[in-house]
Amino acid sequence: MTDDLSMMTAAELISRYRRKTLSPVEVIEAVLGRIDRCDGAVNAFCHLDADSALASARESEARWQAGRPVGLVDGVPTTIKDALLTRGWPTRRGSRTGSPDGPWNEDSAATARLRAHGAVLIGKTTTPEFGWKGVTDSPLTGITRNPWNLERTPGGSSGGASAACAAGMGALHVGTDGAGSIRMPAAFAGIYGLKPTFGRVPIHPMNMPGTIIHHGPMTRTVGDAALMLNVIGEPDPRDWTALPRESRDWRVGLEDGVKGLRIAYSRNFGYANVDFEIAGLVEKAAQVFADLGAVVDEADPGFEDPREAFGVYYFLRFRPLVDTMSDGQRALVDPGLLRSVEEYRDKGVAESLAADTVRLTLGRHMNLFHQTYDLLISPQMPLAAFEAGAEVPAGRGMRNWMDWSPFTYPFNFTQAPAASVPCGITSEGLPAAVQIAGPRYREDLVLRASRAYESACPFVMPESPAA
Question: Is position 133 annotated as part of the catalytic site?
Answer without folding.
Answer: no
